[in-house]
Amino acid sequence: MKEIRYPQLLITVVFGLIIWLIPPPAGVTPEAWHLLAIFLATILGIIMKAASMGTMSMLAITLVAVSGVLAPGNPGKSVTLALSSFGDKVIWLIGISFFIARGFIKTGLGKRIAYVFIRIFGRSPLGLAYGLGLADLVLAPAVPSNTARGGGIIYPIMKSMAMNFGSVPEDPSTHRRLGSYLTLNSYNMNLITSSLFLTGTASNPMCQKFAKNVGIDITWMSWFTAALVPAAISILAVPFILYKIYPPQLKSTGDAPAMAAEKLKEMGPVHRDEWLMLLAFVILLFLWISGDVFGIDATTTALIGLVFLLLSQVLTWEDVKSEKGAWDTIVWFSALVMMASFLNSLGFIPWFSDVIKQEVGGMQWTIAFPIIVLVYFYSHYIFASATAHVAAMYAAFLAVGISVGVPGTLLALVLGFCGGIFGTLTHYGHGPAPVFFGSTYVELKDWWKCGFLLSIVFLLIWMGIGAGWWKILGIW
Predict the structure, then answer these.
(1) In the chain, at which end, N or C, are there fewer CB atoms within 10 A of the end residue's CB?
(2) Burial letters for 368-384: b for 16+ Cβ neighbours within 10 Å, e otherwise?
(3) Which pLDDT value is given to residue 207?
(4) What is the pLDDT of residue 53?
(5) How far apart are CA 22 and CA 11, in angstroms?
(6) How far apart are CA 173 and CA 11, in angstroms?
(7) Other CB atoms within 10 Å distance of the CB of residue 399
(8) What is the DSSP string of 82-130?
(9) Angle at 67 between CA 4 and CA 76, to 5 degrees
(10) Residue 350: its pLDDT value, please?
(11) Coiled coil: which residue ranges (predicted)?
(12) What pLDDT score was predicted for residue 281?
């Protein structure tokens, strides 16, 4: 694409100005409303490809700093706040995941692991999709960061698989051959496993804490039991549905198992750099699983892994500098996280929650319940972080539902499950999203289109079949 598409950029600017000039609703400060205008215009510009995401993000950061919406009358503090998300540890975890993925590719270990998976599951693209999903499922209970799990473990294997079947990120004409399908499938399977386990993603324990504050006890087992049936159906359904609505051009890989076995033979024994990469992988996996015991969080673990790879010379600093996707992602994701976070702290998100409470007040709980869930789910379009969404809205929506008679445990669990699956909506809506989207295999419009269709599938499964399962369990 052209770096700047001026007609689309003009539309973006006009859209932002219109929102900016509309008087803010009662209860919303001018600063919050103006930040919303910049945020929505940025998202529109990205969707319309008015400029690259990096350019749009730098434009947004500059507008936030110049307009002073975060610190009126204090230009120095305003620019500091506009740049504050560049220090967010989740963003750096995402960036470092790209570097670790480079180690898998450079050493050939990713290729070797890919061939093992292909040998087992590789008779069809659908089989590959299920194989990657099952790998994520096995890791999910013990890897509480779905960004670490999806970005640091599954992503490099998935990318290696796609590249070995001729789907190359640098060649857009090859994306739909296999890479696009595997990218969307791996990301969405990651979201399902995030919803299945209380330890599947970082925002889930936050839901548990908020529920406890209103007298609702959720244990690891009660969460898992309630999520088991809808999650299992989702795991079975999503690869097949994506295969129908966003099919890979490659329809059969019937000779892949034999080919994989032959390729493994050609690669010969595991060499030094592969062993070191494997050791780094084991260290990363061990610390991501047991980090709480040692007081080491996921980002620190990723830094340890990266430094190990640099000191062992598996990666060089030139490799790190040349990983353009990582640096690009750090920039644009930082901008979105910054704006979404300050929409909450400036009061727009709490105001939005109050508006919903007023709308559903007095309704029967059977009517209010799906409305609350739908609004909570689709409001994720304005969030660049599941944790920020949960922190801003979970407690408020839970209180609203309980006040109109929705069974507390039912609502607490369903809103908690949404914390994983609502990430399907956008390319920035969950920690692993920028990693998978950064592969460049999936066009932005395709990501949003498939995400919306899958959101309907998820809601039908979790709110439909799930409701029957929860009735059997006595949750409502």
Answers:
(1) N
(2) bbebbbebbbebbbbbb
(3) 86
(4) 81
(5) 17
(6) 29
(7) 16
(8) HTGGGG-HHHHHHHHHHHHHHHHHHHSHHHHHHHHHHHHHTTSHHHHHH
(9) 110
(10) 80
(11) none
(12) 81
Q: How many CB atoms lie within 10 A of CB 92?
A: 17
Residue 207 and residue 387: Cα distance in Å, rounded? 10
Residue 18 has pLDDT above 60, yes or no: yes
Cα(430)–Cα(242) distance, integer angstroms: 19
pLDDT at 76 over 80: yes
User: Is the pTM above the cut of 0.85?
Assistant: no
Residue 260 has pLDDT above 80, yes or no: no
CA dist 387 and 472 (Å) reads: 30
Nearest to 439 by CA among 168, 185, 44, 174: 168
Residue 241: how many other CB atoms lie within 10 Å: 17
pLDDT tier at 316 (50, 70, 90 boundaries)? very high
**Which amino acid is located at 451 in the chain?**
G
- Contact indicator for 104, 110 with CB cutoff of 8 Å: yes
In the numeric block, which tokens belong to residue 316?
């060089």
Q: Give the Cα separation of 85 and 334 in Å (integer).
A: 5
Q: How far apart are CA 471 and CA 455, in angstroms?
A: 23
